[in-house]
Amino acid sequence: xxxxxxxxxxxxxxxxxxxxxxxxxxxxxxxxxxxxxxxxxxxxxxxxxxxxxxxxxxxxxxxxxxxxxxxxxxxxxxxxxxxxxxxxxxxxxxxxxxxxxxxxxxxxxxxxxxxxxxxxxxxxxxxxxxxxxxxxxxxxxxxxxxxxxxxxxxxxxxxxxxxxxxxxxxxxxxxxxxxxxxxxxxxxxxxxxxxxxxxxxxxxxxxxxxxxxxxxxxxxxxxxxxxxxxxxxxxxxxxxxxxxxxxxxxxxxxxxxxxxxxxxxxxxxxxxxxxxxxxxxxxxxxxxxxxxxxxxxxxxxxxxxxxxxxxxxxxxxxxxxxxxxxxxxxxxxxxxxxxxxxxxxxxxxxxxxxxxxxxxxxxxxxxxxxxxxxxxxxxxxxxxxxxxxxxxx
Length: 393
Ligand SMILES: Cc1ncc(COP(=O)(O)O)c(C=O)c1O
Hints:
This protein is an alpha/beta fold. It is built from eleven helices and 13 strands.
């Protein structure tokens, strides 16, 4: 058994690991998908940086942060991602970056087509629909077959690429926030390339819990945040543009603080959260020291498998992601099939079992309850979830 798989089920290790995080007493949080907790040491470092920047004000920022530290921080992030520093630009979150990529993609002509599916994030859907009015393109919207398989996902994109030869651009979500489905990005991107379709990848939930090599995914454009599974302070994200494709994204709304060949001009220019950025090196160090995405992902998958394997066959329960290891991660949604209102059931999970979850709607397959363990979630808490789902089903 590989080390990460063995460690994923070692409750003693994870109980000790959980001490690194301060956790408010209250409901058991199974909604860790919104954003991640910072470790205590990261919180302390962040506080130190807030105080430092507050004391030194623009002197520190203009003399050190802007000319040097910000570049070093970007270089460290790029190193972790295995990409060249000039292929990423820091943003405040994934949404800002994805919107900038979509609105500044300059290869669309009136009459071209762009593609989204039901599982995309609403901000991405909205931005792609916005292109219709502003670029004169037609927006093709598809619903994915449910339950999905690796082959059905590829077949549906293959079919769409053949059916819509004027398709030029598509959004793709690595891990959908609605059901937790993991898209076979590399295979879809290869297919898209064969048909001349560019991909803008929404990686918001992928980074830090899925192991992947960004350049090998085969997408030219991607947007990420660092505050979900990497463990950074809120307000950090970045865009990736493959260096040879930089010219296909315009500077953001006439942005002119940077030369045309500098990716930093592809995002809105504004005063960033400097103390948060200054904290990033420690965050990356901790992420890597604990084994990175491979270790985090293995633990989250173990917790997910624990509850899914116990309830998948129960009458009255539908688990929204398949068990193909290529198509799921720690986030997995489910639905009570004998109850029309999933919100009522999420409220019962909270009031009767002290389990905090969230309802996600918008997938063609209908509303569901998203269950997202975190790094401080214990196997005993997952067992309580199993009991709750079994009794409520
Ligand atoms: C799939 C997906 N895309 C994009 C976002 C937006 O990320 P951010 O909050 O960093 O803007 C989220 C946030 O939850 C998400 O789940």
